[in-house]
Write a structure and sequence with these properties.
About 50% of the residues lie in helices and about 15% in strands. It is of the alpha+beta class. Helix 3 packs across helix 8 (about 145-160), helix 7 (about 130-140) packs antiparallel against helix 16 and helix 8 runs antiparallel to helix 9. Strands 1, 2, 3, 4, 5 and 6 form a six-stranded mixed beta sheet that branches. It has a six-stranded mixed beta sheet with strand order 12-16-18-17-19-15. A four-stranded antiparallel beta sheet has the order 21-22-20-23, with helices on one face. The protein has 27 helices and 23 strands.
Amino acid sequence: MHTVSNIDERRQFREAYRRLIRAVGPVAETDDIASIHCLISGGINAGHYGRNGFGMSLLVHRIQAAALLAEAVSPDRSMTLSLLIAPLCQSGYISAEKVREDWGDDVAKLVGGLMNVVALYAKNPSVESDNFRNLLLSLAADIRVIIIVIAERLQLMRAINHHPDDNAVRRVAAEARYLYAPLAHRLGLYTIKSELEDLALKYSNREIYTRIAHDLNQRKAARDAYIADFIAPVKSRLEAAGLKFEIKGRTKSISSIWNKLQKQHNDLDHIYDLFAIRVIIDTPPEREKADCWMAYSIVTDMYKPNPARMKDWISIPKSNGYESLHTTVNGPQGRWVEVQIRTRRMDLVAEKGLAAHWRYKGLKGENNLDAWMNNVRDILETADSGPLELMKNMSMDIYSDEVFVFTPKGDLHRLPKGATVLDFAFAIHTKVGCGCIGGRVNGKNRKINFRLSSGDTVEINTSANQSPNQDWLNFTVTSKARTKIRQVLNDARNHQATLGKEMLMRRLKNRKIDFDEPNLMRLIKKLGFKTVTDFFAEIADEHLDVARVVEQYEAMLRPEESPAESRSAGEYVMQPPLADDNGSPAVASDVLVIGSTSIKGMNYKLARCCNPIYGDDVFGFISSDGVVKIHRSDCPNSAHIRERYPYRIISTRWSGKAGEQFGATISVTGIDDIGIVTNITSIINKERDILLRNIAIDSHDGSFHGHLVVGVSSTESLDALIRKIKTIKGVKHVQRNK
């Protein structure tokens, strides 16, 4: 066969095919196996099963992924068929209509979702690209598409060890770490999640992975002996209590150990709860809770527990269906051991996630998951932040521990650990969240940023005059709250932009100046605004003087300077004479004193080669058209100007008070981190007299280098901003560009 061309691939194909048939046999319809065998054979003979980007047989890869899906998650007819059929539909061998006709609407729907994912991967949607959001939306179309792609990604991760294309391997590892492992965690696929994280660490930092794996292997004999010593007396006591059970011992995953090493700054010998014991009890449903608590009592009688490490996921299961009792006890030799106690049914749910949960809980589990998926779709469709910030917001709800909070009527709400009164308000309803002014927590008045604990009873206080503001994003943690706050702020920003545009249009009409959109776009870009909305909103907020904007716009309509002159200047005109809303002249205090005294009405320009701002040491240069061009004394062109045109230099100093907005560029370098850009922009947004006009960030090999264009009123405020940015963790160097 063309796609299974060597002995090793043929062996892999046969092994995976036998595993798949064994797993899906009970759920397959009568002629499914014969039909899919015929379809695949025809696709192979027609050359439609090629190779993937890593040079692997696509047929072998899909068969292996289908077997993994059936064994590790759940044998499902539609998911298995769609995984095998999608490549043939993508290549054009079989049409979507034919799939629907032969296999049904459900399979056709999943095939369509998988084809969308493949099409997006063809565009190389890295985590940093805009296409990444489209990929997430495609995944969110149907929960089963997520499960299929997670299984396919895990199979790919298993197969690319030591592949020569290191960059491609690292890209797949990054996707597993940022997207598929968090999604697997949220779906309760903990075994798959752990393997994805381990492989991601292996491919992104093989030295660390190998070192930990080697250390664990060296300690294996001692670890096994310790676990056996720990289990023996526990086993005897549980048997004496009449329980039927199985005990398993395990070591934490390599990625989990690496995370603990980084957090605790310890070595393997001092890792907290490195060992874990799982007690799985065979008991009927009506005895599950009682028998689990009996086993818990026996274990904690034998070994002293750590109360802070006790987790009861039996009384109130996790939102993904996970049920278990967790405790950490002080075992022999004073070593901490984590003990998990659950029933056989609970263990199946824990191993295979929501797919197994559906089998026991029916529609209730699906409805809970639908609510989560609707929240994911809402985030993806309304968020205006970049993909990295998007993933950060999503993972907040996925990985965080949960707290359980009650309404006064006794309704229970699940929230991530660290959730505030405001998060709870948005969990109830968007309108309640937007009007929240605080709440009564256990009968006491609390502010909106008060962090909640499990068991709290919360009553929300609202006001018709309340509305979201930017500061709310600093303490909310749920994706729903942050998304809705941003949405309201964006709507308000758009409203302000509409008002700002009306102000500018009215002023242009009063001055009898024709509106020309291309020239306005040039001016907006020249002023450093990233979007038209930001430009007009700044006018409405009076951060931009509409009269001055009109003057700058009018200057752009005039004939341009000669090429020789424009090369040495390229500045924008700032003219002291202004006009009010009616077009009448207005008096403005001088910003500069030129020469020995202030010269009223003289035009001057701020040189863009050095971008002077209020407080800089400056000098004036009289251009051929009589306009004085203001340069910083340390301007890169100052030496040339002083040497060639000393007779055209005029003494210049600042006068009056700061207040005008001047453009300044700041260079920032540091360690590339998912939240560092957000921290920088947050500091700038909190400064009342500073406006962020543009930002460009470039990252490479764990480091980043960025340029920020800000509007400041003086060197004093710029220096203060630079000092604050330097305090951000991960920032190494900050300076103003010359």
